[in-house]
Amino acid sequence: MRTSTYRHRGTKGPTSEAVAGNGLLNRRMLLGGGAILAGAIGTAPLGSMTGAAAEAPAGGALTDPPWSLEPGAAIEPYERPSRFEKDVVRTLNNPKGLSGNQGARTPHHLLNGAITPNGLHFVVSHGGAPEIDPDQHRLVIHGLVKRPLVFNLDTLARYPMTTRVSFIECGGNGAPLFSPEPLQANLQALHGLASCAEWTGVKLSTLFDEAGVDPKAKWFIAEGADAPHLARSVPLKKGFDDAMIALYQNGERLMPANGYPMRLLLPGYEGNMNVKYLRRIKLAEGPAMSYWEARTYAPLLPNGKAYQFYLLQEVKSFITHPSPDLSLKGPGLWEISGIAYSGAGRVTKVMVSADGGKSWGEAALSEPVLSKAFTRFRMPWRWDGGPAVLQSRAWDDAGNAQPTRAEFVAARGQLKAPPPVGAVLNHHFNAVTSWGVEGTGEVKHVYA
Amino acid sequence: MRTSTYRHRGTKGPTSEAVAGNGLLNRRMLLGGGAILAGAIGTAPLGSMTGAAAEAPAGGALTDPPWSLEPGAAIEPYERPSRFEKDVVRTLNNPKGLSGNQGARTPHHLLNGAITPNGLHFVVSHGGAPEIDPDQHRLVIHGLVKRPLVFNLDTLARYPMTTRVSFIECGGNGAPLFSPEPLQANLQALHGLASCAEWTGVKLSTLFDEAGVDPKAKWFIAEGADAPHLARSVPLKKGFDDAMIALYQNGERLMPANGYPMRLLLPGYEGNMNVKYLRRIKLAEGPAMSYWEARTYAPLLPNGKAYQFYLLQEVKSFITHPSPDLSLKGPGLWEISGIAYSGAGRVTKVMVSADGGKSWGEAALSEPVLSKAFTRFRMPWRWDGGPAVLQSRAWDDAGNAQPTRAEFVAARGQLKAPPPVGAVLNHHFNAVTSWGVEGTGEVKHVYA
User: Fold this and answer.
1) B198 with B164: CB under 8 angstroms?
2) In whole angstroms, what is the distance from residue A40 CA to residue A248 CA?
3) Is the overall model pTM greater than 0.90, yes or no?
4) A104 contacts B56? CB cut-off 8 A
5) What percent of chain B has pLDDT over 70?
6) Could you give the 3-state DSSP secondary structure of residue A118?
7) CB contact at 8 A, A149 and B46
8) Contact call for A92 and B85, based on CB within 8 A
């Protein structure tokens, strides 16, 4: 261990680099550019920054492995990840596609950045992935409109389009954290039902204008073309705000399990309201009280009332690195990094703690920080090899703070017994998540 | 055709909606939100906006296709596009991977937005796609440094990371436009060697600081681990600016043909300088004059000198919709949309013409407009069914304007005879591209 020799330029001791307890470091020191670091590193021994880099062989000599000596493979028309990344996949709760729900969770602990690649976007499906012929698919807008209209992909393509980055999160994401004891599962199992992509399509307001909305209409009911015909009611106001008929996901057509050839995108709203395989929008005076909003996505509150039409996915964050399954291979400098987002707008601040919430330091946010999109946050940390409890907490520009676990449980309750891993019994968990770091470097899910 | 009944709210004739000749429309009218359009559409006949939407059946009734009646398929751990999108692939100039160069071009005319999905990112490879074991891969930094260092993926992961969106463009992108006659090829063949992704990795400046740079160093030479050992010299200043050792591409590990497990990212610099499979960085007083910079990427100028160390990919734009292979199915409203970018910084303005450059209207730019990244531009257009020549022209915040074809040929010359389609004989074509729309709706590559 050489980390004790690490010094901030122009300072004499470790205290000035700390922004909070148990090793959280001033992010400007490390993220403000090389000039600030150069002085310190220039006089420190080899590998002092992380204790990890090793001295190079003389002249930079390397032994040539096979791939440096032989031509590589032919390029594929559509590329897939290296076979060495075969474990970077979604985990499935119903891999055989048996009748009932199917969930596929994003492996956030193995990804980085803010965009979720299309192959790994989360899925919750109530009827599998339909194989829809895009030439036969139609979208109807009817009900309280002057002119009911039917669109196909060709006609939609003639309207002005819009592009934006937006996260989508299942209302059931984080459901295992309603357990009275912290379930020992990794980040993918706990918070893998949220992803973020760049979406392109036609604003719903454009189509509403084309159809002519009756002033009596206050809601619209969106219905999918797949077998469950999932239907959800949405306030009309959202349709005239930022709702979109999404046709492209990260530049290419939507993935089959994410609504191909078209889905409703309601930035910031509960995942299942972003109806996939969208085939019908009916304008109405009130909500439909569909099965999906009256039963499945209407959990009970401690006071006995149903938590219904909650719409927004509230401000939330979690640490992706380190996290369970990513153990720390020795003390020294590590980066604490994670994802923050809010259905109400832009993330304005993420605070990180390494001592279970006793003290907090402000993390750096990767630009651009976009409304209703994943924001990557980062904070340098010098782990001293002792126990630590890592937490993150986010704020948004609508003035909301991510609740602590205690605040959340007081308002929303918790289960009396641990649920099975993978169960989605309760909804809209957005409280602080805690990772306990043990002396061995192992990381566990804890409550703090 | 009902488009003549289309009216802008509060105005009496079609002239107030025009911003330039041959049907270019005021973008605020269509992109400023539903409120502006509602009045006009509300009093216009069915489908007036595009002449494309059709009246819906009574009550929104639809006939159920098979996918509305049966459960769908099981969700896959790593998802791929629908089989109906099988033609949305990269075109290969060497599909069998025979010795020599391999190129894979992005199908921009079939994509939308600003992000290129990982499966479709362009590739130029001088030795195929190596299958590198990430655990065995090493990166050495040596030469004029105080401490030569060697890194592996684990040690790199401990340094602070950074995330940014950046385009990469091959120096040979657009090479077919050096032809004296417009080659009849689609956008993918003409400009498919540029793509844009979100990249995450470690800033090179962080590693330079860790190694300690000798003040005599003015350049660094980056070398790849694949068989060609492609090496390029880069001014040291770029290494301390925004250069990155990229480890993630749109959230997941780099694609095998895009440098897995690590590549140099030099935002805005010529594609091949972003060395893939990066294994060695040597700091030096001058450039190496490597094969790749002294011969392959050093084309002749009309004055007989070599065009060498040009580094930047200059400001450029092209229209993706419509473009060859995307014919217009009848007159009426269409969206003109495309991509603009500059290696020097942010795109500040894109102008669009429908009359071959006689008159221009300013396009809308999709937010966020990021430095050295693709920017999607959009402009509504009412095609009257007559001949039209569509052009786009971009400006950047460094004060550069995309040249007209005439300006470009005067400075950089052109070939005496048409090259074979797919040939990359000359470099850094960034002039205006023109699409000729014929009365049939067919779109052809033209010079104008």
Assistant:
1) yes
2) 47
3) yes
4) no
5) 87
6) helix
7) yes
8) no
